[in-house]
Amino acid sequence: MSVLIPALGLIMFGAVFLLLPFGFPVGFTLMGVALLFSVIGHLLGAFDLPLLTALPQRLIGLMENDLLQAIPMFVYLGVIMQRTTLAAELLEAMSSLFGSRAGGLSISTVILGALLAPTTGAVGASVLTLGLLALPAMLAAKYRKSLACGVVCSAGTLGTVLPPSIILIVLADLMRGANAEAQIMRGEDVHGALIIRDIYVAMLGPVGLLLALYLLYVIGVAIFRPSACPPPSELRPRLPWTRLLVVVIGPLAFMVLLLASIVTGTIYTVEAAALGAIVATVYAWARGELNWQRWAETVRMVMRLTGMMFLLLMGASTFTLVFRGLNGTQAVHGLLAMLPGGLNFAMLPGGLNFAVFAVFAVTFCFGFFLDALEIVLLVVPIAMPPLLALGAPPLWITALMALTVQTSFLMPPSGFALFFLRSIAHREVTTRDIYRGALPFIVIQLFAIALLWRFPELATALPALLD
Prior knowledge:
Blueprint: H1 8-19, H2 26-43, H3 55-64, H4 70-83, H5 86-97, H6 104-120, H7 123-140, H8 145-156, H9 166-185, H10 196-224, H11 241-263, H12 269-286, H13 292-325, H14 328-338, H15 354-366, H16 372-389, H17 394-408, H18 416-424, H19 431-454, H20 457-466
Helix pairs in contact: 1-2, 1-13, 2-13, 3-13, 4-6, 4-12, 4-13, 5-6, 6-7, 6-8, 6-10, 7-8, 7-18, 8-19, 9-16, 10-17, 10-19, 10-20, 11-12, 13-16, 14-16, 15-16, 15-17, 16-17, 17-19
């Protein structure tokens, strides 16, 4: 029994890992397991039940958090994009720019995925939107089915890593707390708090590299194997420049302006999200694509999605409170320190760090059956404070976390992006086509992660220049 008590927090984590694949709502699973182990810990003398009195204040803090208040606005912006023809017109306008050239639809789909990413931030929503818009168009143009599926899946995962996505908002908030806790674990005064601007800027290098690699691949296929991605049989006339400015340049410039405003500190994230929601609403009303009934349906959907997200946040907050009360963070710290290289964070040649590898291997496996938000809420509060306490650079770790989660969504046989595409793809598209199409993009993802591991400056250089 004396051996069991110190490991009780790790056992609780393992219990969640075993229960999650059964499909019960993750928020309720986290809460239920936490409350059960708080009672078990109390009976074993390892947990002080009055610690749970801090839970209401933690949950109220979630609602009052300035950064998390941006989530409903970004969800609203994404739903507006999905429920109107804005995304469809973007795809049509961009593909018309390529005329009779091969690969126009695949290149346009990758770019559209990058444009939709900040407004959705969830892999399922992005893949479903692109799958319904771009996949039928590519199949009608006689694209190789595996290529079309791979482009849709990979572009759909950009919502995990491209700022200012919902996932990065939550990740930034959790990493701020993890960084402060790590400093306390090292016996230091809390200083140098992470801000979301730094995390957004840190992600620009890795995401820019990843997007460039995606485009190089689809352009390479168009050049060397044009039969795999022919132009549409019925070429649409190129839109006049005035129309292109409204349909393509306008939304692109607006998203860049929002990100630039956040990065430069001109406006806060929640203000940028609110501005985006207002502009999208006015734009949709002006185009006649939004009426009172559709607007009411949109708001109801946003309320449901936001409620689901905050249920996850509440479950994760309850879980981490009990986990820390059971001294689980100290147990994880001890385990990571015992691994080879656990106390040596040499990121440049010489140093494969097994502590980092172990954490991200578990994170990668979670991606087979959990969404990005669930993974971030489960892994970051538990594993990141010990890693940061051992000396890992926070921005580097954050970028690695985002890219690792994104890669896991593309992994056969049960990657989340593949699963969502399978649910909407036409019968002529086989599961084997989806798997084969994802493989080249998995190689690209792993190459990008390897470059980030080898060159941490991809994530740390830009924030350092702005300081």
